[in-house]
């Protein structure tokens, strides 16, 4: 059974209509997309700014109501937009560890809240559970009475993870959990996350713009561009043998030691305008393989190769 | 709390206000035990006695009532009414503001338009209307003054709440199962409380004045009850013949309002975190230089050379040694990478070069910065300013923050050119166009008229680079210029910088935390840790065979594309804080090769040829 199944999920942000103009189309931040994640799997989600990663994540935890589509967790549909109902099943770890902790609350108050509100635990029970959670993220109990500003980024992120774990979720959405951290600390947090996943049988959605990090932690990777899924595939294959030209562009742009510097695409290419989306494939304007077909019809997501899916009229052959 | 009081009383005027207000409050509180006459006992025979008369220290009014007694009783009443009005206005106004700011959208719109309507009336007219509707009386005056001041609090608190409501910790609270009421009370309120206190402390005086105004017009306290406003009102008729009857309450109003305002400003300054950190105080035009040791001799190395540069931040009693003796140089046409984690001092090193570290709290305490042999640190401000942009230019991380949002990019480029060269309008335009073309901006001509917000992040950073090139500098210092950009855009910007360096023979100091970027762009690399360079050398050699344990462990931490799923290497522990550096090697507490010798004494940066390492037990001999 799938831990998470998403069907036709989309989000359109309404635009205020002009004073004299008629109703306008909204901005389609996430176009209808369907995917599923198995229990214990890590699905990496990559894409550049404005591709809809964060909108997708916020819909999955109920912070944003989807325009269309449904979310199923363990086979049962979740249609309400009540974050507390989502809270017990799916939790979120935020990008900025410091700003996701209330500066006026002690660490104990922060970790205690989900135990109190989601599970209604008594004081003694909470004490035991907090000790257990802190031990699992390698934080000392002496930290409990301190306030967020006293912690470094890496420690604060572990507190954020502890808060998410306190809700005992089945699925965790990790939204750029290490991009605000230094590399030497980033690995500490990533390894902790991997260990927790194995021990607690968690399912992860790992959102990042750093391809190398995503590849290192994910089983499968989903590439987003302009609100749509352009490619899904196994982590070890997708960047080595991409089917979609955008995936290849991403992989070639990442700075790698030992590869000579060159601009992977012509300068002057601009991202499509969300207010005025182009017909057909959104990537056509930047794509060296684009034809007239690409500029007219949107390519569907199709299986290519073993377990790789791509939305492209002219996929890259092996 | 004690820190707050200390900060408050360092402000002399606030202390003066506190003393005056404290004295007034003391007098008012002592009314029951002071030998005062009945404030309402009339004695028409003793009308208009002058101050210092027998038995009446401040004289008497038109009904022969003792002025001192009336003054103190009136002050008590005025203070009580003013405070009560402030509390009521703050409570209701803040509640409205928090609700509007938190829910946003239609609710916000509805509430705030209502508040706007309240604000559209002149406040005194509104107060008069309220009192007219409710009837005169002190209680009604209080209600009127409170109602008139609600919009001030509502707008103020709404503004703060809107910013907070979008923060991630509010989302986190929602996911932790908190409902709206709990979020407002336990998450938002503690964060806006200091703003409410600040707003109150600056408006209490104003409210006392407004209440006095209503009483003066006869709409507040009713005779014979005394408050400061009604005392003034009654004394108006005898302004010429017995001026002391108006002067006495007038001086009291003046003292109360002035002392409350001085104290309120002090409270605001002490509570406002931006003021407290000194961020709003104006920094000097250039970094303070206070070198205690001898200035190093020019060794003729490089076009731009830093010699034993030390920059510190003095905050209170604490000294942060952000840069602890950095020596590096860059040649014409060369790109030097300066790599390190956050807090390693790489940005402060870069800003110290042209005296851009803000002072206070920054101070350059040692070393020299030489541009073509001249010591920039010893230079007069006017000369240094001439060299900023003309000889050494900067590119910063966030182009949205460095470009002025209200000027077109063409105007900003033109300004940068005219700062250094007297050229005609058409020539500057021509030059600006040329610059935009040089950084490969398509349709340069039309882009000149764009505002920064109309451009994408990559285009803005190109403008940032064009601006750095505006006066043909020899050295460019680029501080994480691609960190805020997407990878595909980063690749374009890096390629552009590389082309420019080759075309123009630029020397570049490139600050980054990304080894991949350094490997692709830089000829040489210097690795910083805790304010010092721990290793330097040609990029290829350093990356292939790092000598310092920190460099080698850090390289191992960086995941590389193509490695597949794996466990990543980590460095346990945290970098040391630069206000409390351990003796010896700063990396020793995290290093698995550290021995006793590493924790003692100064360790020199040593090596042969282009490579050098600051380590007693290096991984590679250099």
From TrEMBL, chain A:
Cited PROSITE patterns: ABC_TRANSPORTER_1, ABC_TRANSPORTER_2
One Pfam family here: ABC_tran
Top-level division of the source organism's lineage: Bacteria
Keyword hit for Transport: yes
GO-annotated cellular components: plasma membrane
Domain ABC transporter: 4-251
Alphabetical list of SMART domains matching this protein: AAA (SM00382)
Keyword Cell inner membrane: no
Keywords in alphabetical order: ATP-binding, Nucleotide-binding, Transport
UniProt topology in membrane: Peripheral membrane protein
Compartments (UniProt record): Cell inner membrane
Gene Ontology biological-process annotations: peptide transport; transmembrane transport
GO molecular function, one term: ATP hydrolysis activity
Chain ranges passing through the membrane: none
Similarity remark: Belongs to the ABC transporter superfamily.
NCBIfam families, A to Z: oligo_HPY (TIGR01727)
Listed name of the protein: Peptide ABC transporter ATP-binding protein
Native source organism of the sequence: Pseudoponticoccus marisrubri
UniProtKB/TrEMBL annotation, chain B:
GO BP: peptide transport; transmembrane transport
GO cellular component, one term: plasma membrane
Topology in membrane: Peripheral membrane protein; Multi-pass membrane protein
Superkingdom of origin: Bacteria
Entry keyword annotation includes ATP-binding: yes
Record flagged with keyword Cell membrane: yes
Record-annotated ABC transporter domain positions: 304-555
Residue ranges of domain ABC transmembrane type-1 in the record: 75-264
Major subcellular site: membrane
InterPro entries registered for this protein in UniProt: AAA+_ATPase, ABC_Ni/Peptide_Import, ABC_transporter-like_ATP-bd, ABC_transporter-like_CS, MetI-like, MetI-like_sf, Oligopep_ABC_C, P-loop_NTPase
Subcellular location as annotated: Cell inner membrane; Cell membrane
Keywords assigned: ATP-binding, Cell membrane, Membrane, Nucleotide-binding, Transmembrane, Transmembrane helix, Transport
Entry's family note: Belongs to the ABC transporter superfamily. Belongs to the binding-protein-dependent transport system permease family.
Identification of the protein by name: Peptide ABC transporter permease
